[in-house]
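We store chain and fold; example below:
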Amino acid sequence: RVKVVKNKVAPPFKKAEFDIMFGEGISKIGEIIDLGVDYGIIKKSGSWFSYGDRKIGQGRDSVKELLKNDEALRNEVEAKVREAMIAARKA
C-alpha cells in the first residue's frame, strides 16, 4: 500500500495498492487480476476465481501463475480490462 503525500503530477494524499515482486518490479499480472475483479471481468467467490464459465484458480497466486503461463488467456483478460477502463472513463 502506497500513500502519495506530495508530487507535481497528480493530486496529493491518494492511495494505491500493488504487488512488488523481487527481481521483477510491479506485478502486471497482479494488476490485471485486481482490475479484472474490480470491473467484474473476473469473478471472485471466496478464494476461487473464475473467468466466464471457467474456474481459473483457487487463490490469487494460482491465478497469477495461470495467467503467467497462458499468454492467450492473459491477453484476452487484459484486453477486456482495457475496454472496461476506457468505457468507465467515457461515462
The domain at 27-90 is CATH 3.30.250.10 (Rec A Protein; domain 2). The mean pLDDT is 90.
